[in-house]
Amino acid sequence: MATSTTQAQELITCDLCVKPVQQFCNSCQVSLCEDCINKHVNSLKSMKHDIVPFTKRTVQLVFPQCTSHSHQRCEAHCQQCDVPVCIKCLTGQHKGHMSEDMADIITKMREKIKRETEEIEGIIPNNREKDTDAENEISCSTAHFVQLEIQAKNQRKQWHLEVDTIFNKIESLILSIRDQHITTLKSCQSKIRRQNSSMIQTVKENKEILKSNKVSDVNNYKSKLKEYENIPQIPDLSLPSLQTNTVQGRELSIELGEYKATLTQTSLSSLTDEVSFLYVKKLLEEAKLIANIPTNVKKLNKVACVGSDKAWVSGRDKRITHVDIHGAVQDIVTSTCKDFPNDITVNRQKELIYSDGPNRTVNIVRDGKTETLVTIPRGWYPRGVCCTRTGDILVSICTTDHKNKIVQYQGQRVTQEIDKDEQGDPIYQRGEYGMFVVENNNGDIVVSDINAKAVVVVDRTGKVRFRYNKPPGGKKSFCPCQIVTDSMGHIIVADEFNDCLHIIDQNGQLLRCVDNCGLERPTGLSVDSEGRLWVGLINSGKMKVIQFVK
After folding, report:
1. Prediction pTM value
2. Which of 28-32, 153-157, 506-510 is predicted with the least confidence, judged by mean pLDDT?
3. Which domain holds residue 390?
4. 3-class SS at 284?
C-alpha cells in the first residue's frame, strides 16, 4: 500500500490534461501525453517543435517566438531598440545594432533576484523585532493608562462631591488620549505587519521566478528592495501624568498633560463659574485652509467627522455619503427617511446616527443595517441629535405648532427634559426651524436656536448660563446653523448668511471670527480628531477643512 501511494505521488502528468506524460516538447518545454501532441503542435503552428520521449527531454530556457519571423525564437536582445530579436532579425532590420545574448541577460537577472531575495530575507527578522517592540509599547501604555484611571479615582475621594464634574472630565480625557495613543501605536504596528506580510509574499514570488524557465517571468521582474529597506519607525509618544495640588481651604487643582482644572472651594451655586478647563494651545492669527473637498451632495448642510480624515455628509435627499479628505467616496447609506435626514452624528464607536423627523425616530447604522435607537412620543418630531460622553443621546424635538425642547435619552428612557427656565418661561423660541445640539467638555448643553438667531447654553441641570447672538460688525443678522465644541471647550458656530464661523469660549465671549477661507454660506460643521473644522457649503456642495489652532 505504501509503495502504491509513493508511485501515485511521483506520477508526472501531461501539462494539457491529467493523463500520464509520455512525450516532451524541447522547444516549448511542455510535457505531453500521446493524445495531446497534435493539439499542442496545432495550437502553435508557426513554431518548430522538437518532440522527444519524456526520458530524453532537455531542460532549457524557453525563448519567446519572434513576431517578425515564423519558426524563429528570440535568443538575443537588441540593446539599441530594446526588443527581443532572432538570428534573422540581427541580419535584417537590426543589422549592425548592439545585441546581447538573452541567456546572459537571464543569468544576470537571476543573480540579481537571488541577491535581493536574500537581502529581503535578512530584513524580515528586524521587521519582526519591531513588531514585538510595538506590542510591548502597547502593553506598557495600556497598563500606564490603567494606573492613571486608578490615580484619578483615588484622588476623587479627597475632593468634595461638587468636583465630580472635574473628574468626569479627567477620566474622559484619559480615555480619549489613550485611544489616540494606542491607535497611533497600532497604526504603526499595522504598517510593520503589512510590510512583513508583503516581504514574505515577495520572497515566495521571487523564489517561484527563480524556478521558472520562462524568459518573460524573469525579464519582467520589478525590484521592491528599496521599498522594504525603510522599516516604519515606532513613534516616540510621551505618556501623560496626573498632577494634583491642594491648598487647604482655598484651592484644589488637577492636571493631565496640558489640561488643568481648578476649583476654588465655594458653594454649589457658583460652582460653574469657578470650575474651568484650560488648554495652553493658542488660536492661530489666521485660520488655514487645509483641503477643499468636492462631494457632489446637493444642498450639503450636515457634516459628521469620523476620525482624522473622513466624514459623513448629507443634503436634501435620503442619501448619507461617507467621503475622505481627498473627496473619494467610501460608502453611501440610503436612510429610511421620507425626505432627508434632519441631522447626523457619530458615536464613540464611530457608528453613524441620524434623526428622521417624519417617522419620529433616531436611528443607528450597524454593519450596513439601520436600527431604531429612540422613538419620539406622538406629536413630537426629532431634529438635531448628538451623543454625549456617557453614551446618552441628546435630541432637539419640536411639535407641529413649533414648540421646541431638548430631551436626553438613555436607551429609550428619558433622563432629562430642558424647555423652561427658573421663571417658567420657554428657554427656546417657537419657530419652524429645528435646533442643533451638542455637549461641551464641562457638561454644558449648547444649542443653536435658529428661530431666536442665538446660541443658548445651559448647564447640566438645565439652568441658562448665557445666550450668544452677536453678528460680525456691520454684517447681516446672526444665523447659527450646525454647531460643534472641541477638546478645548471652544464653541464653534456656522453662520450661514455672514459666510463665517464664530469661535466663542465656554462663557460666551467671542474669540475669533473665521471669514478668510472662502466660506460661502456655511451650514454643515464638524470637528475631526486632530481639532480641524470640516465645513459644508450648502450651495456649492463643497466641504472645506480648516485649521484654527496651533
Report:
1. 0.53
2. 153-157
3. 281-549
4. strand
- What DSSP designation does 319 have? E
Evaluate whether residue 7 is within a structural domain: no
Q: What's the pLDDT score for residue 96?
A: 86
Asked if residue 227 and residue 375 are part of one domain, the reply reads no
Mean pLDDT of 443-467: 93
Maximum alpha-carbon separation in the chain: 106
Least trusted range by pLDDT, from 96-100, 203-207, 255-259: 255-259
Which among 75, 103, 131 is the end of a domain? 103
The pLDDT-based confidence of 46 (bands split at 50, 70, 90) is low
pLDDT of res. 161: 57
- Asked if pLDDT for residue 165 goes beyond 60, the answer is yes
Distance of CA 463 to the CA centre of its chain: 38
Q: Sheet harboring 283-294: ordered strands across? A: 283-294, 542-549, 533-537, 522-527
Mean pLDDT of the chain, nearest integer: 86
User: Last residue of a domain, which of 207, 236, 265?
Assistant: 236
Give φ, ψ of 227 to 5 degrees.
-60, -40
DSSP secondary structure string, 411-479? TTEEEEEE-B-TTS-BSS---SS--EEEE-TTS-EEEEETTTTEEEEE-TTS-EEEEE--PPTTSPPP-
For residue 375, what are the CA distances in angstroms to 67, 101, 202, 346, 498? 73, 78, 54, 18, 36
Shortest CA distance to 419 belongs to which of 409, 430, 404, 433? 404
25 shares its domain with 124: no
Name beta bridge partners: 455: 448, 468
**Does 5 reside within a domain?**
no
User: 23, 92, 84: which is closest to 58 by C-alpha?
Assistant: 23
Q: Compute CA 176 distance to the chain's CA centroid, rounded to the nearest angstrom.
A: 17
Is residue 354 within 8 Å of residue 347, measured between CB atoms? no
- Please report whether residue 259 resides in a domain: no
Mean pLDDT lowest among 233-242, 326-335, 395-404, 511-520: 233-242
Q: Is 205 helix (H, G, I), strand (E, B) or coil?
A: helix
pLDDT for the residue 252: 66
Q: In what order do the strands lie in the sheet with 369-375?
A: 343-346, 352-356, 361-366, 369-375
Give dist(CA 369, CA 364) in Å, integer: 8
Cα–Cα–Cα angle for 441, 446, 449, rounded to 5 degrees? 165
pLDDT for the residue numbered 473? 64
Distant-in-sequence, close-in-space partners of 445: CB < 8 Å, separation ≥ 6: 394, 406, 418, 437, 438, 439, 457, 458, 459, 460, 462
DSSP codes of every residue in 6-34: HHHHH--B-SSSSSBP-EEETTTTEEE-G
> Measured between alpha carbons, how far is 26 from 58 in angstroms, rounded to an integer?
6
Q: How confident is the model at residue 448 (pLDDT cuts 50, 70, 90)?
A: very high
